[in-house]
Structures are given as structure tokens and as C-alpha cells.
Amino acid sequence: MAAQRRTLETLNGSTMTNNASIICLGHAALDRIYGIPAFPSVPEKVTATTMEEVGGGMAANAAVAAARLGASVAFYGRVGSDLAGQAIREGLQREGIDVAQLRHFDGGISSTSAVIVDSRGERLLVNDRGKGLAEDAAWIDLVPVSRAKVVLADVRWPQGALALFQAARAAGVTTVLDGDIGAGTALPQLLALSDYVLFSTPGLAEFSPGDPLAALDKARTLGALHAGVTLGAEGYMWTDQAGRHHSPAFAISVVDTSGAGDAFHGGFIWALAEGQPIAGCVTVAQAVAALKCQHRGNRHGLPDRLALAEFLGFSHWTQKNPPQL
Q1: Burial (Cβ within 10 Å: 0-12, 13-18, ≥19) of residue 45
Q2: Would you call 324 exposed, middle or buried from its count of C-beta atoms within 10 A (0-12, 13-18, 19+)?
Q3: Closest by alpha carbon to 297, among 27, 37, 56, 47?
């Protein structure tokens, strides 16, 4: 136990200098993805054709998507003192992501998921969000926030998201909220601090059942400057001060939709940090999600700049001379 505690203290006390252009805060998980031919009509034993263990979690996947595109990214989050927590950390580190603010809680259980994907790319996700991961966010270092261009938070750690967004708002840093299900009573406070809120379809319905456009308008009355919703094959719809907009999805052959929304968010925040106009941010986000959906797993297929440029029909995409979409 003493040796384990020293290891955790070393991990939690990392001293990397955080000059990240993007900070992502929230859910990190370890996913076990099982491929099956088809979902049975009744509960029964099904033999998997494939199995893979990969990092997951909404904010963590978005962080990986932005890092693959070349952004300097830091991740703030919570995991347990278990093997899953160590695997989560190592997976983010392999992507070049600063994990100094990824805390391991002694005795905690990390979030894990079983993801069942059929041959059409549809999925069933069973998630354990973890246990023993304290909600208090007083320990996180908010000093680096003022040096970031964009911060993103999902709704799975409301206290952390509020602390991050308050610091970002005070520093004039752009805030992006991943509006998935589970925000609870903290959502109005988060919307008041959000420049952009990108809802999933279930997340928007949970926020305000009924007409999606009315729900997006409601989100804007609470403070968000841009409120949008990902619609899968139907594209992306959003509202802002310029009116209501819709961007159709790219026509692709879907292999797996796991992590598509996270990929969208990662592409969106990367494009924001690159200075793209909103329509360009949406195009990049949809392209990143489309490329991911052509591969099984929530991180396979996430593109680098070259792959993104090729998909969008550009000869190249450089940091000094990015195309304006």
C-alpha cells in the first residue's frame, strides 16, 4: 500500500509546464469494445467477433482528437487508483496530452464501459461511471487557464466544469460545453458561462423536451452564444446571433459511431483555436467525426492534419497558413 501511495503521489504531483492551447476537463474512461454480427431480438449469449480495450470518456476523447490534429492539449480529470486508471493515464500520455491535472484517488474505481457494436455500426454502451472520485474541484490548478485559447468541459464533473469555466470567463478564454445527458441542476450555471454549447440529441431532449430548435433557443437565453445539436446522419443544427443554421453530414459508409460526438467536439475546439469561422469549425468537426466513423473504436480513425486536409480536398493544412473554410 505504501508503494502504491507513493506511485499515486508521483502521478498526482506531476510538474509539467502547462502551456496548452486547449484544456479539456471531464470524463475519462477505459472502454472494452466488442464487435458482434447483429443485436439479438431477445437476451441470449452472443459470441464477439472482435474485442479491443481502448481509452474512452467524452472530454478525454475530444482531447485526443484535438491533439491528433496538432494542438497542445491538457486534460483535467479524475480516475481511481486501479489498473484502469493507470491505463487511462498512459493512453492520454501516448497522445502527447499533458496529464498533470489527472488525479488518481486512492481507493477509487475508474470509469469503465462495455461497448457492443454491430455490423451496421450501431452500438449499445454499458457504463460504470466510477466510484470514490471526489466531486470537489478545489485541487485543480487554474493558473494555466489564462494561457489557453479554448477550454472544453463535459457535464460529468459539474464542480470541475464550473471552476474551469469561471476561470476561463475571468481570463476572457473561450468556453465550450459538451451538452450530453447527466448535467442535472448544474446545467443552467454552466450555460451562463458557455460561449458554445454542443448538445447530443439525447442531451438536448433531457435539457428541454420537444422542439429541438426551441430547446436551442432556450439554451441561448440562459447565456450560450452558440447552441447546437449533433444529429448523426442528419448533420448539425445550431442557432446564434446570425439566426438558425444547418450543415448536412458527410456521406460515408459507417463502421462504428462510438465516440462520434466526442470526435466532433475535438474537431470543433481545434478549429476554434485555429481561428476558423463558425461554419469552418462545423465543417472540420463533421469531417473529424466522419473519419472516425469509418473505423471501429472511439479513437481509431481520428485524423491528423494531413488526413483532414485530404478528406476536405485541400493539398495541405499548415499552422501558419490554414485554409479558411
Answers
A1: exposed
A2: exposed
A3: 56
pLDDT digits (tens, 9 = 90+) for 64-77: 999 999 999 999 99
Instruction: Classify 173 as helix, strand or coil.
Output: coil
CB 88 within 8 A of CB 113: no
Predicted confidence (pLDDT) per residue in 92-151, tens digit: 999 999 999 999 999 999 999 898 988 887 878 898 989 999 999 999 999 999 999 999
How far is residue 321's CA from residue 288's CA, in Å, rounded to a whole number? 20
Place of cell 446545467: 187
CA distance 173 to 175: 6
* pTM of the shown model: 0.87
Nearest one of 303, 306, 308, 295 to 54, comparing CA atoms: 295
3-state SS assignment for residue 171: helix
In this structure, are residues 245 and 239 in contact, taking their beta carbons and an 8 Å threshold? Answer: yes
Report the C-alpha gap between 151 and 44 in whole angstroms.
44
CA dist 127 and 123 (Å) reads 13
Distance from the Cα of residue 63 to its chain's centroid: 6
Cα 162 versus chain centre, distance: 16
DSSP calls for 54-117: EEE-HHHHHHHHHHHTT--EEEEEEEESSHHHHHHHHHHHHTT-EEEEEEEETT-B-EEEEEEE
Query: Across the beta sheet with 111-117, what order do the strands follow?
Result: 50-56, 29-35, 111-117, 123-128
Nearest residue to 261 (alpha-carbon basis) of 302, 317, 220 = 302
Asked if residues 278 and 324 have their Cβ atoms less than 8 Å apart, the reply is no
**How long is the chain?**
325
